[in-house]
Amino acid sequence: MTDVRINRGLERLLERRRTILASGRQSLGWKAAFGAPAFLDRFGLGGPVVGFMTDASLTPDGTTVDISTWAHAVAEPEVAAFIGQDLPGGSDEEQALSAVASIGPAIELADIDLPLEDLEEILAGNIFHRAVILGAPDPERAGANLTGLEARVRLGHAEIARTGALEDLTGRVAGVISHLSHLLAGQGEMIRAGEVVICGSVVPPIDLIPGTSIEFELLPLHPISVQVAPPAETVTL
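Given the sequence above, the corresponding structure tokens read:
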């Protein structure tokens, strides 16, 4: 990588990750971000950037979260790739596909608390990541098989998005995972067996509203959801 913003941001990001893991937390996996065409153009990127997830941010399905102190809370419905074997740094798309043991739904919760200008600072802050809800993985989807899957998103009782084009905003799952493996290899890290990669929002990010809920289905897989606490209620995430 020759982009100094990314190199410096990743160095700071991964140092933060090492500190968290040293405190006793376990690695959950990795997140892709800014892979949508608009963000690639905005930041002058050749592919998505990478953040990390630990068990500290893993949130049970149906949990109620309090966003009263967040700057700008959003939900991102994503495809989660569950990794079944270590992925050597700099792996190509074929190797990436071979490493995907199953596919499931994910909802990432993010707090956009920095201006969308300083890429290094955004990376160093783990790209707004606050929490992730993971659905049950489907081993019949090994090799990142998305055939027949359709995304449906509900805000409260209203359906607000439905699409079968799961890779239009993110790029191909294989390409995303391969690209992240290259970024991590440049910092001496790799995607490992047992980790999860969430591949970017399949629809534009959804503003979270206190007192409502977000439900995400990767039909025909089981839905997952998160509740947002009403303004007067205090619930610790």
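Residues 4-22 form the longest helix (19 residues). Try to locate this feature in the token string yourself.
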